[in-house]
Task: structure prediction
Amino acid sequence: MGLFRYLRRKLNTQQLKEIAEEILPKVERTIAAQQQLGNKADQAKAEQLVIRKKVDQTIVSQQELGKKLDRTIASQQGLEKKAEQAILGQQHLKEESKGISLIAGKLAAGQKELSEKADQVLDVQRSFEKKNDQSIQDQQKLKEIGEEISSKADQAIAVHIELSAKADQVLAAQQSFEQKYDRSAQEQLELKAIGERISSKSAQAIAIQEELLKKSGEALQQQTLLQKISEGISSKADQAIAGHIELSAKADQVLAVQKSQEKKSDQTIQEQHELKAIGDGLLSKTDQVISIQQELSHKADLAIQAQQQLKSISEGISAKIDETIIVQQELSKKAEQTIAGHQQLKEIGDGISSKVDRTIAVQQALEKAVRQALDDKKSDPTVNGLQQLKEIGDGISSKVDHTMAVQHSLEKKSDQQIEIQQQLKLIADGLASKADQVIAVQQDLGEKTEQAIAGQQELAKKVDQALLGVQQLKSDLQKVIKSLDEVKRFSRDSSRYASEAVWGELFNQVRKDSTWLKDTRLAAGRWAVGYQYLYAVYRILNEVRPKHILELGLGQSTKLISQYASANPDVRHQVVEQDPKWIDFFRKNYVIPANTEIVRLVWDFIAYKEAEHVRVYKDFAETFKGQKFDFISIDAPLGGDMRQYARIDVLKMLPGCLAESFIIIIDDAERSGETHTVAEMTELLRSLHIPFSIGRYSGKKDCVVIASDDLKFVCTM
Result:
C-alpha cells in the first residue's frame, strides 16, 4: 500500500493510466497463465495419482509374477524329481521313440536361445541400472526382448507338446509290445504242448527201440547157436538146416522190425524237423526280443541323456529365473525410488502451486492498486516508479514463463513414465501368461511322465515274465532236444545192431561152403572189426584173390586173411603190430602160416598239416619201401583219440605203395580222424588222375572201401 501511495504522489493521472494500460494486459496474461498453470498442476496431481496407482498395480503384478515364478520353480523341481524317477524307470524302457533325441536337441536349442535372451535381458537391466537417463530406450529394448522371450516360450511350449505326443507314441508302442507278448505267450504254450507230444513220441520210440534191441539180441543168440550148429554140421545136418530156416525166419523178423523202426524213425525225424522249425522260430523270436531289448536299452540311454540335458537346461533356467527375480527386485527398488521421485515432484508441484497462489495474490493486489491509481486523479508518479513497476511486471512474466516451461517438461516426462509403465505392465502380463502356459505344459508332461513310468514298470514286469517263460521254454526245449538226441542215438545204435546182425547172417551164409576158411572162431565187434568188415574182406579174398596183402593191426581180420594165405602159398601176407605181448598170445593160440609175417613197429607221433600230434608206426615207410600191394587192410594204429587225422601211414606212401589194381579197406570210418584221412586219400588220387571208386559198409561201425576202377564192384557187394 506504501508503493501505491508513492505512485499516486509521484505520477500524474495520465502517466499512471498509461502505465496501467501497459501493465494490465500483462497482468491479465499472468493471471491466465497462473490459472492455466494451476489447472496443469491439478492435472499433474491427478496424473501423479494415476501414475502412482499404475505403479502400485505394476508392483502387484510383479509380486504376482514372482509368485508364479516361484510356482514355476516348484513345478520344475517336481519335474526334476519325476525326471529322476524316469531315469530309474528307463533302465527297463522298451518303446520305439526314434525321434526323441531330435526333439531333445530342439528343446535344448530353444532353451539355449531362451538362456541367451535371458542374458540379454540381464544386460539390458544392468544397463538400465547404470544409465538411468537412457531408461526409455532400454525399456523399448526390454519390450522387444520380452516379445522374443514370448516367442521362444511359444516354441518351448510347442516342443513340450511334441514331446507329449512322443510320450503318447511310447504308450502306444508299449501297448503294441504287450500284444506281441501275449501272442508270444500263446505260441510258447503251443510249443510246450508240441514238446510234450514229441516227448511222448520219443518215449514210444525208445520202447520200440528197446524191443528191437531185444529182438536183435535174440538174433545174435540165434547166430551164436547157428555157429555151434555149423561146427557140428557133419553129424547134425538136419538140425543145421532147421536152424538155418529158423534163423532165416528170425532174420526176416529182424528185417521187418528194422523196416518198421525205419518207418517210425522217419516219423520221428519228421517230428524232429517240425520241432526244429518251431525251435528255430522261437529262437528267431527270442533274437528279435533281444534285439528289441537292446534297441530299447539304447533308446533308454538316449532318453536318459536327453533328460539329463533337460535337467541341466532346467537348472540353467532356474538360475536365470533367480537372476530375473533379483533384477525384478532391483526394478521394484527403482520403482520405489521413482515413486519417491514422484512424491518429491508432487511436493515441488505443491510448492509451485503455493507460490503461484501467492503470485496471483500479489498480482491481484497490484491490479487493485493500479485501478485505484487510475481512479485517483491526484497522484503524482515519477519515471523511476514507472520503471520499477515495469521491471516488476517483466520479472513476474519471466517467472510465469519459466514456471510454464518447467510444467510442460514435467508433463512430458510424466507421459513418458506412464507409457513406460504401461509397456512394462503389458510385458509383465505376457510373461505371467507364458509362465502359466509353461506350468500347465509341465504339469501335463509330468502326468505323461508318470504314465510312462507306470507303463514302463508294468512292461518291465511283463518282460521279466516273458523272459522267465522263455527261459523255462528253453529249458523244456533243451530237455526235449536231449531226449531226441537220446532217441537218435538209441535209434542209430538199434539200427546199427540190426545191421550188424544182418551182416553176421550174410557172412555166415557166404563162408559156409568155403574151401579155405576152416577155423570160424571169429569174435567180431567191440574193439575188433565187425561182421560188415569180415564180410567185405572175405568177399575180396575169395573173389579178387589178391597176392600182396598189407594188414595194419593184428586181430580178427588176421585170422581170416592168414587162412587165405595158408591156402594160397603164392600169397605174401604182412601184418604190422606194436604190442609184443599180444603178438606172443596170438602166436600161441593160432596157427600162423609161413607166408604170413608179423612185423613189429612201435608207435610214434608226427605233425600232419594243422594237426600237431598224429599217432603212426615208426619207420613204417622205410620198412615197406619199394613194395606194392594189391590189398591193404587198415585197422591200426589206435585212432579213437585222434580227432583231426588218424591212421595216415598208408596215406603218406600213396601212390607208390599201390599196385595197378588195388583195394584199400579202412575200419572205424565213422570217426572224424579216419573220415579226414579217407578224404585226404581220395583227394590225392583225384589230383594224380588215378581212377577209383569208393563204397561204405555200415554195421555197428563203418568201413570204407577204395578200389581201382577195374575192381569197383567190391564197393557195392
